[in-house]
Design a protein that fits this description.
Strand order of the largest sheet: 6-5-4-3-2-1-14
Shape: globular
Distance between the termini: 5 Å
CATH superfamily: Ribonuclease Z/Hydroxyacylglutathione hydrolase-like
Mean pLDDT: 92
CATH class: Alpha Beta
Number of domains: 1
Order of helices and strands: EEEHEHHEHEEEEEHEHEHEE
Low-confidence stretches: 29-33, 37-42
CATH topology: Metallo-beta-lactamase, Chain A
Largest sheet: 7 strands, mixed
Number of strands: 14
Strand content: 25-35%
Helix content: 10-25%
Oligomer: single chain
Amino acid sequence: MRLQFLGCGDAFGTGGRFNTCFHVAGLDGHANADGGDAGKTDGGGDFLIDCGASSMIALRRFGVEPNAIRTIFITHLHGDHFAGLPFLILDAQLYSRRTGPLTIAGPPGLEARLTQAMEVLFPGSAGARRKFEVEVVELPPGGPRKVNGVAITAFPVEHACGDPPYAYRLATGGRTLAYTGDSQWCDALADCGRGVDLLIAEALFYDKQIKWHLDYASLRAHLADMAPKRLVLTHFGPDMLARLDDWPIDSDDASVGVPPPEFAHDGLIIEL
């Protein structure tokens, strides 16, 4: 499994970073360049985790073929995590000439909010005829359930966004990946990330606790119990971003049984 951070910033582009968008490749069943089936049936092809407003720019910047993306998993319905979808769908229709189906999976409310976003940004686009199918899958909490060959479990978390927010645990190709999405600390995050090969966790602040978002200190207090094999922090605000050059700040995380954190940046590639 190959994961690339196409965007790892907060909602406001702190540090010049793109909005959240992670690209996972190296799976069986890749799509062709036009989005068609490559002929394999034992995998779901490339997928994205979240698709924030700047994601089409990030896809172009890092040379990712949009039509190879078979599935997009959306954690919650804030613009910096899902508002790139109208641009990706219209690019597929008008520039990339997609023919293969696209599945967009996320929390309840996704289909209605996507339609609203498309009509606000590009009136008339939601009902336009296309040469490819867009399937919207609204995931209930729990799981795991298979979506295009990826086993996904949805964990309800605590983040105000108008519809249920999720953290995700995904399994494919013999590897497990968890992503907190945006959330203040809650027990669901421990269940989501326990024992995974890679945990991607929000760290908007270092130790300032605010409602609806996660700080690294709160996460660190639970990492020994969660025991992820690898930890990458993302979604930095100004406070956290300013501290990275001085790491470690309090102590060596490895000495207390906590995996030393790695820090996401746009373009970072993780091989699992």
